[in-house]
C-alpha cells in the first residue's frame, strides 16, 4: 500500500512539473493564430497592467526635483495626473493584440525567421516558485521575460517584460 501511495505522489509531482510546459505548447499555437482572441485563455491582462503600473509608480519618483517650493507643487500635480494618464494609457496599450505582437516579435528577434515559432525561441523555462513559471525568450541581456502564474487550474501570462 505504501509503495502505491509513493508512486501516486511521484506521478502527481511529475504531472505538476510538466503542467506549465504543456501550457507553453498550447500558448505557441495561440501566438501563431490569426485571431488575437485565441490568446485570451492564456493571458491575464489585469495582472499585466498591474505589473506595468507598479513599474511606472517606481519610475516617477526618479524625476522629482529635490528642492524648491514652486517646483514641488508642479511635480505634485504632474505626479497625480501622470497616475491617471498612466492608467488610461495602459488600458489602451496593453491588449491581447499587444501581447501577441510582443511574443511574436521576441520569437522573430531570437530565431531570425518569419514567422517564428514561439517555442523555438525559448531559451529558458522553469519554476520561480510553486505558482510562478518564468520563460526567457532570447539570450540574457536582450531577452523578453514571460511570467506565467497559476490562476485556479490554469497557467496564464501575468507579466511580460521586454
Anisotropy-based shape: globular
* Rg, Å, rounded: 20 Å
Compute the number of structural domains. Answer: 1
Number of continuous helical runs: 5
Strand numbers in spatial order across the main sheet: 1-2-3-4
Sheet with most strands:
4 strands, antiparallel
Average of pLDDT: 87
Counted beta strands: 4
Overall helicity: 55-70%
Instruction: Report the sheet-strand fraction.
Output: 15-25%
Structural class of the secondary elements?
Answer: alpha+beta
Ends apart, CA distance between termini: 50 Å
SSE run: HHHHHEEEE
Provide the low-confidence segments as ranges.
none
Fold and architecture overview:
The mean pLDDT is 87. With 162 residues, this protein is an alpha+beta fold. Strand 1 (122-129) and strand 2 form a beta hairpin. It starts with a helix and ends with a strand. It has one domain. A four-stranded antiparallel β-sheet has the order 1-2-3-4. The protein is built from five helices and four strands, in the order αααααββββ. Helices cover 56% and strands 19% of the residues.
Give a short overview.
This protein is of the alpha+beta class and 162 residues long. It is 56% helix and 19% strand. The protein has one domain (18-161).
Amino acid at each position: 500500500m505504501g509503495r502505491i501511495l509513493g508512486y501516486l505522489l511521484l506521478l502527481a509531482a511529475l504531472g505538476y512539473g510538466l503542467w506549465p510546459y504543456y501550457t507553453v505548447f498550447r500558448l505557441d499555437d495561440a501566438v501563431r493564430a490569426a485571431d488575437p482572441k485565441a490568446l485570451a485563455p492564456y493571458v491575464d491582462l489585469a495582472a499585466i497592467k498591474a505589473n506595468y503600473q507598479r513599474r511606472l509608480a517606481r519610475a516617477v519618483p526618479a524625476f522629482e526635483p529635490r528642492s524648491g517650493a514652486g517646483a514641488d507643487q508642479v511635480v505634485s500635480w504632474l505626479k497625480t495626473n501622470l497616475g491617471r494618464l498612466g492608467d488610461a494609457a495602459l488600458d489602451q496599450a496593453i491588449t491581447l493584440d499587444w501581447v501577441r505582437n510582443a511574443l511574436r516579435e521576441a520569437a522573430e528577434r531570437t530565431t531570425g525567421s518569419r514567422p517564428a515559432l514561439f517555442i523555438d525561441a525559448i531559451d529558458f523555462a522553469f519554476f520561480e516558485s510553486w505558482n510562478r513559471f518564468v520563460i526567457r525568450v532570447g539570450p540574457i541581456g536582450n531577452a523578453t521575460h514571460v511570467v506565467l502564474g497559476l490562476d485556479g487550474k490554469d497557467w496564464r501570462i501575468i507579466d511580460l517584460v521586454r
